[in-house]
Amino acid sequence: MTTLLQLNHVSKHYGNDTKALSDVNFSVKEGEFVSIIGPSGAGKSTLLRCINRMVDANSGEIIFDNVDIAGLGKKDLKKARTKIGMIFQHYNLVNRLSVIENVLHGRLGFKSTLAGALGLYTEEEKRQALQILGVLGLQEQIYKRSDQLSGGQKQRVGIARALIQNPKMLLCDEPIASLDPNASKIIMDHLKNISASMGITVLVNLHQVEVALKYSDRIIGVNKGSLIFDGPPNEITAEIIEAIYGSEAGDLMFDLGGQYAG
Amino acid sequence: MQADVFVKKRWNSFIFLLILLVVTFVSIVITEFNMAKGLASLPKALQWGFTNFYPDEMALTKLPDILNKLRETVLISVAATTVGAIFAFLFALFGSRTTKVNGVLSKVSRGIATIFRNIDISAWSMILLFSFGQSALTGYFALFFGSFGFLTRAFIETIDEVSSSSVEALQATGAGYFSIIFQSVIPSGIPQMISWILFMIETNIRSATLVGILTGTGIGFAFDLYYKSLNYHTASLVVIVIVITILTIEYISNYVRRVIL
Amino acid sequence: MGVDQSVKTVSADSINSFHLNEKKRIKVKPFNKASLIIQLTIISLVLVTIYTFISFDYSDINLFEGIISTFQNVKIMFLEPHFKHFSFVTALYQVMITLGLAFLTTLFGALIALFLGFFAARNLSSKPVSAAIKGFVAVIRSVPTVLWVLIFAVAAGLGSVAAVIGMTFHTVGYLIKAYSESFEELDEGVIEALKASGANWWQIIFQAVIPSSMTYIISWTFLRFEVNFAVAVAMGAAAGAGGIGFDMFMASGFYFDLREVGVITYFVLAFAIALELIATKVKTNLKTSA
C-alpha cells in the first residue's frame, strides 16, 4: 500500500502562546482506517482541519497524494479539497434544504461559478446521489428537509455529501459525539465499510477509546498538541491511555473500553 | 460562606438601586421634568382625548386625501427597505466573519454600517433636506440609509449564527465563493433575513410618520397639517389609519414568519 | 444494542420513492410551502419597489443633482464642522438632556412593562388577560412615538413632560412584548416545582421568574435605552422635547447651517456608538455568564 498522507513537522499556535499543535509527524496509507484519540482541547480538531487547510498550520509540510497542501494557492487548494471529504460533529447541513440538495453540495467543488451558484447538477450526479443515499439507507428521506431528520440520519447525509466528491480520504471530526449509541454504531459501521469496500482512507477524531479500539487499523494518541502514540490498537496499554488522557482517567477509561470492545 | 453570598448580593442590589436613583434624580433635574405635572397631565390628556380626539363626519370627507398620503408613505417605506436590504446583504457578506473576503474590507463595511445605523433617521432627513428639499425623495433616502445600517448588522448576525456551519462544510468540499453564497448562506439565512426585512418595514412606516413631519411629505405631513390647524378630529383619523395599516402589516409579517421560520 | 432505530422509524408516507433506472429527470427541489411564501414575499417586495420608483414625482427635483449635492453636503458637514450658535459645553449639556429624556423614559417604561409583563405572559397569567394586554399593547405600539408625544403635548404643553410620557407609551408597548416573551420561554418545570412546594404567585414571580429571566430583561431594557436615545433626538427635532435634537432642527431648518448640523451629528453619533458598544458588551457578558 502506498502512502497517501504525510505530515512533517506540522505546528500551529493561536496568538503568541497558545500552542495547538507542536511538531506533529505521521503518515497514513491508502485505505487505512486511522483514529485520533485524546482529551478535549488536545488539538485533535485543529490537526484534522490543518490537513485540508480549514485551519492554516504555521509551519510544516502536509503531503497529500504527492502534493504539499501547505504550499497550495487558493485555486489549487480548492481542487485538492475536492479529493478530501469532511464529516462534522454537528453535521453542518443546510437545514432548510432537502436531503438530496445537501448531498449534491458535495459536487460544487467541481463546478463553474455560474453552475455552482445556480445549483445546476447533471442527471448523472443526481443518480449518483440517489445511489449513495440508497447505500446509506436513506432512500425514503430524499426529499425531506434535513432539519426533519434524526441526528444519525443527518450524519449519514453528511457522509453522503462527502462520498459524492469521490474522495480519496475522509476526515471525520468527532462524527459520533452528538449521537446516541445505536446511531453511533451505524455511523461507525458505515465508515468502516467505506474504508474497507471502497478503499477510501478514513481519518477520524474520537474521544471514545473503546470505539477507536474496535474499528481502527491504527490509533494516533494526541495530548496537548503533541503525538503521544502511533500504532495498532493491540499495542495500546493502560499506561499509554494514561499518558494520553492524564493520570487515573487511564484505568477508568480502559476498563470501560475493554467492556465495550469485547 | 452561604451568608456571605447573600450579603454580597444584597449589597450589589443596594448599590445598583442607589445609582439608579441618583441618575433618575439628575435626569429629572437636567430635563426639567416635572413629576407632579406629568402625573396630573395623564388624566387631563385622557379626558381631552375622549372629548376631542375622535373622527367626526367632517374628518371622513378628508379620508381619500389621507389614504393617498398613506399610500405614498407605505410605498416609500417598502422601497427604502427593499433597496436597503440589497445593499445590506452585500455589506453583510463582506462584514461577516463567516463570509468575509478579507479582514480590512470586513472592518470597513462594518464601520460604514455602524455610522449609517447610528445617525438617526430624523437626523438623516434633516441632512437630506438640504439636497432634496421637501420631497418624497428626502424621506426615501433617510429611510434607506437607516434601513441599510440596521439591516447590515442584523444580516451579519444572521449569517454568523445560522450559516457558519454549512459554509464550513462547503468550503471543505472545495466549493467556490459564489457557490457557497448561493447554496449555503442564502438558503439557510433567508427566513431570518426576510423576518428582519418585515420588521424593518413596520419600523419604517412608523419612522416615515416622523420623517414626514420633518420633511413635509406623506402621512406625517397630513397629521402635522391637521394637528397644527387644531383640526383634531381629522388628525385622529390619520392616527387611526396609521394604526390599522401597521397592525395589518404586522399581521401579514407574523403570518409569513410563522410559515417560513 | 446494534439495532438501527432510525431505519425502523422510516416514515411510510414518503411517496417520493425513487427508481434508479427511471429515465425521467430527477427532481432536486421538492415543493414546500415555506419556500413558496419566501418567493412570494421577495417578488412582492421587488414589485412594490419598482412601482414606487416609477410612480415617484420627479418633477420638482433632479435626482442626479440631488445625489451629487448630498455628497457635497455630507463632505462639508463632516469635514468642516463648526460651532456658531452654541459652544462645545452647551452641546454637551444638550446631549445630556437628550440622554436624560431617554433614561427617564426607559426607567418608567421598564417599571410599568415589568409589572404588566407578568400578566401578559401566557404561562403566568390567564389566557383572556394575556390576550387582552397583548392586543392592547399591539395597538399602543402601532402608533408612532412622535404622535404620542404630540397628542400629549395638547394636554401637557410641548416640553419634556409630554415627551417623556409620549415616549414611555411606546417603550411600554415594546418592552411588554419583549419581557412577556422572555417569561414565556421559562421552563414550565420551574414554575411547577415552586407551585408544588406551595409558593404563591408573587413568590413564584420573585424567586423563579425574575431571577431566571434577568439576563433577558437587562439586555432588552438596555437595547430599548439605546433606541430611546435616538427617539429622544428625534423628539427634540419634531416635537419640541428639547435636547440636542432641537439644536439640530434649528441648525438645519432655521439657520440652514450645514457645518453646525455636522457638529451636532458628530455628537449624536459619538454617544449612539458608545451606547451600542456598551449594549453589545452587556449582551455578550450576560451570554457568557448565563
From TrEMBL, chain A:
Q: Name one GO cellular component term.
A: membrane
Pfam families hit by this protein: ABC_tran
Query: What keywords sit in the KW lines?
Result: ATP-binding, Cell membrane, Hydrolase, Membrane, Nucleotide-binding, Phosphonate transport, Translocase, Transport
State the signal peptide span: none
Domain ABC transporter span(s) in chain numbering: 5-249
Which Gene3D superfamilies does this entry report, sorted A to Z? P-loop containing nucleotide triphosphate hydrolases
The protein's Enzyme Commission number: 3.6.3.28
InterPro entries the record matches: AAA+_ATPase (IPR003593), ABC_transporter-like_ATP-bd (IPR003439), ABC_transporter-like_CS (IPR017871), ABC_transpr_PhnC (IPR012693), MetN_ABC_transporter-like (IPR050086), P-loop_NTPase (IPR027417)
A GO molecular function assigned to this protein is: ABC-type phosphonate transporter activity
- Alphabetical list of PANTHER family matching this protein: AMINO ACID IMPORT ATP-BINDING PROTEIN (PTHR43166), PHOSPHONATES IMPORT ATP-BINDING PROTEIN PHNC (PTHR43166:SF6)
- NCBIfam families of this UniProt entry? ABC_phnC
Protein's UniProt name = Phosphonate ABC transporter ATP-binding protein
Record the organism.
Answer: Peribacillus saganii
From TrEMBL, chain B:
Q: Which GO terms describe its cellular component?
A: plasma membrane
Cited PROSITE patterns: ABC_TM1 (PS50928)
Where does this protein chiefly localize? membrane
Among InterPro entries, the record links this protein to:
MetI-like (IPR000515), MetI-like_sf (IPR035906)
Tell me which Pfam families the record gives: BPD_transp_1
Entry's transmembrane regions: 12-30, 74-94, 177-201, 207-227, 234-253
Tree of life domain: Bacteria
Entry annotated with the keyword Transport: yes
Per UniProt, subcellular location reads as: Cell membrane
Topology in membrane: Multi-pass membrane protein
**Gene3D superfamilies under this entry?**
MetI-like
Q: Which GO terms describe its biological process?
A: transmembrane transport
Q: Which family does it belong to?
A: Belongs to the binding-protein-dependent transport system permease family.
> What name has this protein been given in UniProt?
ABC transporter permease subunit
Organism of origin is: Peribacillus saganii
